[in-house]
Amino acid sequence: MPIGLSLKENNQDIINATIREIASGRDNATGVATLVAGTTTTVDSTNCSAQGGVQITPSSASAVGAGAWVSAVNNGSFTITHSSGFAGATFYYRVHG
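RE: above sequence
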């Protein structure tokens, strides 16, 4: 949750504000991944679950050429496999489940 809600939160004002944020389409299951040299990039994401999925979207036309896809999803991280020569290309990501 974008305002720092924990699973043990008991302040109703914070809980309500978080619900409003989620209802407005905001959450903390998104981010930006930057590719590193080589052909795989591991991205740390605390919201990742091995049973979940990750969607990536290139953030620029040059990133499209990386031929990137999510090749592994683990608890706490995911791996993007991509063509070499695209270090620095960025992708938006969203974690599901």
